Amino acid sequence: MASTSLFILFILQACACLFFYTIGAQANITFSAIFSFVDSILDTGMNNNLLSGRCNYPPYGRDFPGKVATGRFCNGKNPTDLIAEALGIKDTVPAYLKPDLQSKDLLTGLQYFKDYIAKLTGVAGEEKAKAIIANSLVLMSGGYNDIGVSYIGGARKLQYTFPAYCAQLVTWSTTFLEQLYALGARRLGVLSTVALGCEPSGRVAGSCSITANVGAQTYNNLLKAGIASLQSKHSDAKLVFFDIFAPLDNIASNPQQFGFQNANLGCCGGVGSCLPFTTLVCPNASTYVFWDSLHPTEKTYRIVVSDVLNKTLSSFP
């Protein structure tokens, strides 16, 4: 059984991106910074430094500014960019390990949160650093790759029953959130996993797989309960569950209502992988719910992000 520390190490090294930007008020809510600990749904390029699981090649990024493949599993911007955009931060968010990151971008994030805090304290002073962390919006997303890759497509199913694995994931996640709290984070948004049964790789006879979606909701319900339990322990913090399952399920089940023509196939790769430099790509990604067999298009992400922010921003003090 993997230890909590190994799980957290995986998050930080394999799929974590930390970002900091000062932003203004949005719907009377002000955040001093944004930190994002993420998987492939939100990753803006940390995966570029991995030996596998990379996407920094065309046709990824085909509709991204500059038409470059940055490591986003999307045709264009992903939710990290779109949340930053919606909150008036900036149009796109660079990964911390981007090779040409400038020294002036020190305050935009570090790979490890403790290192970030130490360096931020050196730049801003201890009291200001504490205030920045406490007033930041901290995002975390981890269940998607853990369930979709490590369990369904990996060896975890040989170690755990699915409910037991979901419970273990929640334990690891809440432990990680506790560590963020101990380091000063007080405003945390935790993403659900997506509607796994609606992805092209998981659909059955052109419809969302009920079985896969029930599995995803098993995890989501346990995660939501775990977050509520943490909230009851920390009255000085605000922990908010970000439901991305419901809007994606709605879009994928009713694509025409949202202006899409195809929800069964990925624009690139269909029900398989989006291979490097493939020419088997749809001409207009905005007509597809999914970009590849696992990840939505930018247009889909925009609808999901709008839904989530409209429902959650007012939850933060």
Automatic annotation (TrEMBL):
SUPFAM superfamilies: SGNH hydrolase. GO terms for cellular component: extracellular region. GO terms for molecular function: hydrolase activity, acting on ester bonds. This is Uncharacterized protein. Residues 1-17 form the signal peptide. Keywords: Signal. The keyword Cytoplasm does not apply. Belongs to the 'GDSL' lipolytic enzyme family.
